[in-house]
Amino acid sequence: MDLFDKLKELHEQGLEEIKKATDEQTLNKVRVELVGRKGELTKILHSMRDVAPENRREVGQKVNELRDLFNKQLDATKAEIVKAVLVKKLEDEKIDVTLPGCEGHLGSKHPINVILDDLESYFIGMGYKVVQGPEIETDHYCFEMMNLPKDHPARDMQATFYIDSEDLLRTQTSGDQARVLEKHDFSKSPLKMVGPGKVYRRDDDDATHSHQFMQMEGLVVDKNVTMSDLKGTLEMIAKHVFGQDRATRLRPSYFPFTEPSVEMDVSCFNCDGKGCPICKYTGWIEVLGAGMVHPNVLENAGIDSTVYGGFAFGLGLDRFAILKYGIDDIRDFYTNDVRFLKQFRKEEN
Amino acid sequence: MLVSYNWLQDFLNLDQDPHDLAEKITRTGVEIADVKHPEEGLKKLVVGKVLDCKGVEGTHLHLTHVDVGEDEPLQIVCGAPNVAAGELVIVALHGARIAGNEKIKKGKIRGMESYGMICGLQEIGFSDSVVPEEFVDGIYVFPEDADVKPGQDVYEALGMDDYILDFDITPNRADTLSMEGSAYEVGAIVDQKPKVEDVFLKEDGPDWTDSLDVKVDEKLAPKFYLRKLTGVKIQPSPLWMQRRLWNAGIRPINNVVDVTNYIMLLTGQPMHAYDAKTFSNGKLEVRLANKGEKLTLLNEKEVDLDPNDIVITDGEKPVMMAGVMGGLNSEITAETTDVILESAIFDPTLVRKAALRHANRTEASSRYEKGVNWDGTEKAINMAALLLRNDADATVDEGIIKATDTKRKPVVVKTTVSYINHVLGTEISAKDMIKIFDRLGFMVEHDGDNIAVHVPNRRWDIAIPADLVEEVGRIYGYDNLKSTQPLLAETHGGYSEKEEMMRRMKAIVEGQGLMEAISYSLTSPEKAVRYTKDPKDLVKVQMPLNSSRSAMRENLMTGLVDAASYNFARKQTQLALFEQGRVYDHDGGTFNEHEHLAALYSGNTFAENWQHLTQKVDFYFVKGQLTNLFTAIGIDLEKVVYKAEGIKGMHPTRTAAIYIDKQYVGMIGMIAHAVTLADKALRGSELYGYEINLDVIIPMLTKGMTATPAPKFPAIERDLSLLVNKDVTNQEVENVIKSNAGKYLTALKVIDVYEGSHIEVGKKSIAYSLTFLNRKDTLTDKVVNNAMDKIRAGLENDLDIKVR
Description:
heterodimer, A: alpha+beta, BirA Bifunctional Protein, domain 2, 2 domains, 7-stranded mixed beta sheet, 12 helices, about 40% helix, about 20% strand, B: alpha+beta, CATH 2.40.50.140, 6 domains, 6-stranded antiparallel beta sheet, elongated, transferase activity (chain B), EC 6.1.1.20 (chain B), cytoplasm (chain B), tRNA-bd_dom (chain B), nucleotide-binding (chain B)
């Protein structure tokens, strides 16, 4: 057989072998056999001396052509094999993306604090300081300074948790007002504060009563604070919390520490004022109490009530949460049932 | 106070819709909680005259024929015991609607055709509590004076065409607890002067004022008036009065009792009528009760009188609890012929306390406690006498015994028009302001800006200029006030620094997956000091609602354990709860409040999952969470020391006290078996938690920081595996490593702990990973090797530890 036939045969055979290789190892072996240093093509080159000189050039050319062909084919087959391996690997790695993820614990804010935080940041934005006072309060600050006379019903043993004749668990956050009024230097700046916190009343716990709940007190005092300012401020709070489209109304009311005193109602957000069980068919829902600071409260704190005046308001955070989230039992706030609490994860702010 | 719209028409000319009027009153004076129109929802209820009435044998039924104004009388079967021929009754015709939206149709009862129903008052919507006694268990029968004819609607005759406005008054507006007071208020609102009439009473009996020796303590009863009537004919009141009473929520009883109630409704002055026989020994005394005295009240409740109850006595025994309720022993009965009427002012606080003490608040006591018009005492007693003269054929004896007669001067409040405008933020002219006072019935002296306002005694709530601001503001209309924002010098809002720090910590633990709880501050004395390292004196309330809420907590953990119990009982056992709140004590003679933060975990670190990538919560998991919290708030962990210590309520060998710079800051550990075993829901559960005192920690924190760049040179890590005596703690080992490691040791981590069969008895193996770093240069092996040699030597010398 002459070299040309051999080359022809190698051509066919080589391509066939390359084609048969299905893994990288076999393919490498084929590569070594065909185009390696001791491979078939090299062997043919080595046997060139047996070739007639006039044919050597042609043989050399053919060998090179064949090497290029083999290399090209080897590379192509290798790429196919690599791809096939990758495809297989990916197939093996396939996961069911619909299986559930691994969930950690997800924290949540207590609903009352969701409301409180929202209100606090709202007031801070308007220049109010957030002030905290003691929960174990004296009769003096809780009542006396706030213009509740000695025989006022709120001062009954029946209504208030007394610790001794002088100390008690505060029934309202209003004591914070007195403490701040006493200390504030009005020559430096007007007073704008809110005072949130726990309060206690001697009520048996039921769906609508709790011996412990949370209030927030607000107080603005300076030389030119008017009831129109109070009205504007209250309307802003009510709309902020209950929605911009709520109507509001002020009703005369009575608190010992304000005069005039008012209560604010918002139009029922359930029936939009048409009347339903939530608003007891009145179309209105009472949300807070307020008024112009009673001159006695100012004078008790050593402030000249003919020069300074202002407004105060108080709201029940539990009540706000009850109204805003449609809760029908105040005890739900204090039993800490995680099935109840976890709903408020979405109310983070 | 239930105020009748029709009755108001006696004083005013009202033409607005009662609901609109109610809204106006609510916005201007007193909240109207409700407007009731009794006939609403009722249909085809007419007056009928029973023509004949026969008992149906073997039943309680009657077969009647009733004239309802039609050509033919209706046959109606009636089961009421008091139905009888000749009566004028309420008939629900075929197609009628009665109370509860019930429809009446003709039908057959026991085979007898019945073309309607004869009704009792309750069946057409009356409350049981106002139906006259004789009609409670049967049909209603119109009295002779009713002036009704068969066929006409019943509503007007029964007062059901009225609108009843429920005045939900605040304690300062007791002046509206009467029709006259309400008329003044509504008059001011609609700008009409109410027609309030005086009484002209003819006395035709003899002067009686010397016949009774009356002794009254002026402090208890500053005004105490009595009148005597004789020859009283006890009978039902006229229908017009009964109507007014039941529409005001009061049951008509007899003409004497009804008159006292009617006068109270009309004038606001509570009245009482005694059978004159009560004082047949010629004595009457108003005093405080003596200890041990008893009195059976008109509602047949026997009460043990308290030395702070005011009583009226016959000189010996109490016959009335003053201002609250009469005694059964002085009651008006069918046999009563002579009556003593009382119109008085009693001390408001004593009356309120007595009513509260004996759980017996009445229409009278609620008026006394809020304040009664001192100018109405005489008018009320005369008006009552007049009505009894008319309706009970009584003879009015001459004279009023005024045992006490303290006068109260009307208040004059001086202020300025500009002050009132300044507070309201309005620009009301002096003329308009005076007009507002005129509407209220207040006389004003006016001199430029200055005004002096004369306040009638019925409005005892007004004493200072601020009170006038309210009157002007509300009549002017709060709706008419502008809505403005305070125009003040700039203020800087925000939290205190302490509060900022607390909020930061709450945000961190929330981010760690904890749910915020709020528990009650009041707990049992025992729980109050559980989980507390050195309990202080408790803060206890004097009159707790129950013993489990009698002391203020000294720790938050107890609330979280209660919450765990509540949740476990409901099969919720995966808990990660925290609470930030105060604890309370009475240490050193002062009441102290401290801010704490506590967390409680149970169950797994991750929610149960199909990959089982979770583990049970344990001490080290919780400690890791707390460590993260400390890191996040910038506490130097080197300074945090955990010491195994016993704390009540905590597992004795799985609890540590935590110290920072030698100060006790809190504790961490497992809730004691003694606690969980004693709680059915928690039995067998493992709860881990921590509680830290923020009042101690927050002052340790610093605000602000300076950043350092990330290291530019590589760190070198070395592992160290040690064989350690079992009783040597990690802390001790770490201390020795750190003190020998030199300045380049930047991290020391425990990477393995092993105790068990593969090592010597009494030993454990701990492996550490040490990281060395020089921020200024590349560290050489030589430096690190030196450090490691020193560490090994130190461990061997100090703790007898061999490197494995």
